[in-house]
Amino acid sequence: MEKNSRKNNRRHGARYRARRRAVDILFEAEARDIDPVAIVEDRVELSRRPDQPVKPIADYTRTIVAGVAVELDRIDDVLDAVLADDWELHRIPAVDRAILRMSAWELLFNPDVPRPTAVVEGVELASEYADEEASSYINALLDDVAKKAEHFREEFQREDEEAEGSEEPESTPTEDATEEPAEAPAPETEVAVETPDTPENPENSEPQEPEESPQES
């Protein structure tokens, strides 16, 4: 990615250089269609080798790249929302898109950076990499994002809460369900009780004939 040929006499601090490196990586990742975090990891490894003239990656560069990678969908939705009706994010120059994504991440997801600083640094990067026209519309877009940042954050929070509420907790077996069922009590057996024989009812019994006595001869 070529920088603007215009001479820039402003002295930039470490944070600005970290932002510029992040923009370079985001631009390269989109051009190569790879994960920007993978590029950072590759650069970190190369910077440790003495035979490779690769500068170390600043911590803030890594923070920006990782943050943009995680929140890319939300960042792009915000940028689409503030773009004019006749503009589309995927149709603007790739370097402008990388700058906007980097600055939008700072405005929306990094409360440690003052909003005016994020806007000014983004516009400064645009003036370094693009023309005056690009700097002008990038300034307008970032200013709009800064004004609506709180609104967008509230939307993100609601989305997160709704997502958490829609997740059903995994059912865990209850204590009663894990216990083995108790054995059912054995049915009571009837115990036969012996009763003494009772004589037959004389009223119901048939009369017996008396035995004949022997006659005298």
Describe this protein with a few key phrases.
217 residues, mainly alpha, 8 helices, 0% strand
- Percent helix among the residues? 55-70%
| Helix segment tally | 8
Determine the strand fraction and express it as a percent band.
Answer: under 5%
Determine and state the CATH class of one domain.
Mainly Alpha
Q: Report the CATH topology name of one domain.
A: N-utilizing Substance Protein B Homolog, Chain A
**Tally of strands:** 0
Q: What is the overall pLDDT average?
A: 81
Secondary-structure element sequence? HHHHHHHH
The largest sheet, given as strand count, sense and whether it forms a barrel, is: none
Shape: globular
- Low-confidence runs of at least 5 consecutive residues: 189-217
CATH architecture of one domain: Orthogonal Bundle
CATH level-four homologous superfamily name of one domain: NusB-like
